[in-house]
Amino acid sequence: VGLMMPPEKYLCKQLHKAMDGIGTDEETLIEVLAPQTNEEVKKIVDCYEQMYDRPLAEHLCSETSGSFRRLLTMIIVGARDPQGTVDADLAVEQANQLYNAGEGKLGTDEEVFYKILAHSSFDQLELVFEEYKKLSGQTIEQAMKHELSGELYDALSAIVECVQMAPHFFAKRLHKAMDGAGTDDATLIRIIISRSEIDLQNVKDEYEQMYNKTLLSAVRNECSGDYKRALCALIGGA
Asked: Are residues 152 and 170 located together in one domain of the fold?
């Protein structure tokens, strides 16, 4: 079914499913929203309200809480600077702010982390992370692992991965969906469909490099029937 609809419509269905009923699937919310540019987010937000007659922000706020909720809200209101917005002096300042909010003090000021990571363009964040490494000697991931936890950590580390190398993030998620007993079909379908028009070829290359087998062969082993044929056709055509 996902193959028959525009990507944003499909992602809206996935977001709704992640929040519908009892409990919330935070992993799906993170995976769908963390990599999006402002333009992509706007399409999703408009489409969601059209489909469900309810603003996405309102639904998210009712299903999440704390810093995690504030981060997701910032992403969907389009707070991120446009791609290509880069300021080297500001990057040094932001790296300092992150250091002082985490490693450089007792306790952690979460707000500084989610504001910078939700506001700055991905190009700007790349610079910020480089400056952070120079300043601290640690990567931003290492610092966040010590300073943050729970859903906020998961969401911010997903943003960091998507800034540095989105295909790596998705290859890891695909592997996790097929690893061990049983297959997480929903994640498998969602990633392959949602990345098919963006960077699926890069995700395939990264998957093969990381796991020493092709994504196509992994999906062939894990899936069956029409669903297997549809996914293999998408992967083969990427």
From this structure: no
Give the contacts of 112 (CB within 8 A, at least 6 positions apart).
97, 98, 100, 101, 102
Residue that finishes a domain, picked among 77, 106, 141: 77
- Other Cβ atoms within 10 Å of 18 Cβ, number: 22
For residue 194, what are the contacts with CB-CB under 8 A and spacing of at least 6?
7, 10, 11, 32
As a whole number of angstroms, the distance between CA 72 and CA 33 comes to 8
Locus of tokens 């300042």:
93
Q: Is residue 82 part of a domain?
A: no
Provide the H-helix boundaries in 77-139.
88-101, 110-119, 122-136
Tokens of 236: 């083969």
| Claim: this prediction has a pTM higher than 0.85 | yes
Q: What is the mean pLDDT of residues 87-95?
A: 98
Distance CA 92, CA 23 (A): 40
Count CB neighbours of 236 within 10 A.
Answer: 11
pLDDT tier, 191 (very low <50, low <70, confident <90, very high otherwise): very high
pLDDT surpasses 90 at 238: no
**Segments forming the whole domain that contains residue 147:** 88-164
Point out the domain boundary residue: 139, 164, 189. Answer: 164
